Amino acid sequence: MTRIFDEDLNSEFATRAIHAGQRPDLLSGAIMTPIYTTSTYVQEGLGKNKGYEYARGRNPTREALERNVAALEGGKHGFAFSSGMGATSSIMMLFKSGDHVVASESSYGGTFRLFDKVLRNYGLCFTYVDTRDPENVENACNEHTVAIMTETPTNPLMRITDLAAVGEIAKRKGALFIVDNTFASPFFQRPFEFGADIVYHSSTKYLNGHSDMVGGIAIVRDDGLAERLQFILNTAGAVPGAFDAWLVLRGTKTLHLRMPRHDENGRQIAKWLAEKIGDENVIYPGLPSHPQHELAKRQMKGFGGMISILTGSKEKAAKILGKVRVFSLAESLGGVESLISHPASMTHASVPPEARARLGIRDDLLRLSCGVEDVGDLIGDLEQAFT
Ligand SMILES: Cc1ncc(COP(=O)(O)O)c(C=O)c1O
Q1: Which atom of ligand 1 is nearest to the CA of 183?
Q2: What pTM value is reported for the model?
């Protein structure tokens, strides 16, 4: 399994982003990690090899990425997967029939779909709660609870879970605390500092940052847990190709440059939107009107570029989507380019309509992923789209 280089933890975030987990290539001295496009490795003799046997189990490009993101999160072992969902399903293979998981009721629609439409058939039990209130998490735990899973901020409602409070509950209950850190990225939030056991990402998003691949990554600190995850990774096989791993590795080198700009644009656009349509219609943890703004400030170092808005009607939402020119109508988020989407019919279409209504994923809700373009152009685009 992949373990960080301990000395990488002596560096600050920006240095880790660029160098952690990578060393000049032993053959040529190449400063950039080569893309090892190989499925197998020639062995020196029977039972004698350089530590690499078959690329499902280990690949040097993938390992560089795993060490890099593990160091950024302040973890110890990284596991790269073929998608964020590949990471989630592989993590869930740690559990067995009859095990109980307390999960956030408001999370990425695909996560809910995996739990409700697939894993339930294998005897895993889920209780979905509003994790904004730690007491709900505490009350949902029972003697079979093996994990508490949360996403914060959530997609698309930007709900915040108090990581320290829920981490404490997980510890007391003997359950693994699993956090999807996709929206914040390790630049703004590091769940291990609050008691997480497993932190994971859709690396398709901010980690890659350029919308040119699909991937996932999980990070742990505990050696025993790492061994179990390595077994699952190699056995279930949801691994990324070397080129995709390299694309994320190239992305993380500028994470510390991109995130402040996403944050700056996010704050300015959220402020503009609040003035335009009223702060009650803008959901952004960086706005003082967000009910959990103080908590967000405590556990996050910035708020990023994700904003949701209530437009008043599905027709109004459709009109805006039809008029934007710099923002593009598309699923996904976290790239340098700005995107806008309609969660009810796109990312969260798999959540039943009654559940969407109860949660607040209304038909007039739009989600913006503010990129790193000129903020004046982005606001100008929204201005003409709203008019
Ligand atoms: C918060 C969050 N977690 C997980 C995923 C799943 O990741 P992927 O699309 O890479 O499988 C997504 C995808 O949108 C997401 O937004």
Answers
A1: 1
A2: 0.98
